[in-house]
Amino acid sequence: MNEGETREADVLILGAGMSGLMAARDLVQAGRRVLVVDKGRGIGGRMAYRRIGEAIFDHGAQYVSARDERFCRVVEALAEQGMMAAWSEGMPGLPGDHLRWRGAPHMKAIPVALSSGIEVVCGTKIDSIHRHGDGWRVMCEGGSVIDCAAMIVTVPIPQALALLDAGGVTVEDSMRQRLEQVEYSRCFTVMAVLDQPSGVPAPGVMTFSEGPLAWLADNQVKGISPVPALTLQASAACSLARWEMDRQETAQLLLAEAAKYVSAQVVEHQIHGWRFSKPVHLYGEPFAAVGDGLWLAGDAFGGGRVEGAALSGWAAAADLLAGGRLRWMSRWLLVGTNPLWLLARDWLDWLVRRSCMRQDNVLCCARLRIASEAEWRRMS
User: What is the mean pLDDT of residues 253-259?
Assistant: First the structure.
């Protein structure tokens, strides 16, 4: 945005990752004027890639898995468009033999495809969120302003709370306590160009449960790099312990560990640190409704995976379109021991699906069902 510029939107979404883009798509389809703003240089958040010479690296999220029916349809549609490709059924060291998908030609291709038809402004840092009349006002670095009737904030929870605090927005005590209990792991990622093939067998992945290294992926074997190129991701413990240390020393540590498993030499490398790599303590519900017209969403609400981020974005958009009625009804029915609970849940599921069928807006509160908090945690 230009310095001093003022913009207006029906709905402002902060964060152009999977959660924000999925929410935006449903809201645009429903006829809302939507603006998505991200402080990064490009869209996608941790669905990111990098080039070093001819080498290409997925250096954030490494794959996508799909279990939810609607999300499966999204993945299948992107695959038909050539924006996703099957990578491997099963992965060494990871539970489950379900199919893992990759982006084509890289992970960022997925959010790029999903952003089609959505107005996204990148490179805009938000300073604060304020109440403004019946809606909301966002103050941006450089003095630009965005006014909106409603807002969905999909940035990591600590950043979201800091923006609300800066604007004097009060979060109800019990909700704030739950939000502050959400924690994220950190992750160092090293991208290494090799002088010859690594020797890592298909699907090109090694995982580790001990030591500084957690993940090793050969991007050439994976099918995204024309030349041998490794993505190394440090363990959460290693990343946290070394966060304030010299990053090149950390890179050398991870490269030395990887050298035990590959038959090639490193020609060139870079290192990147993800401060909010993965939520480890989740919120327990698919979104948080902070105030009238303001929702928090993201992977910390949806289960920590790419799919979970999408489900959270859909759920927040659904509640926005329903005017908060889903949230009110869910609280009223949130008694797992109520003998009428199952009947009420199924009735509400049918009602919501029927009311949204014209928009094909399948509301997702753990498969669009109002569930007890315990059930939501199990399903996440």
Answer: 98
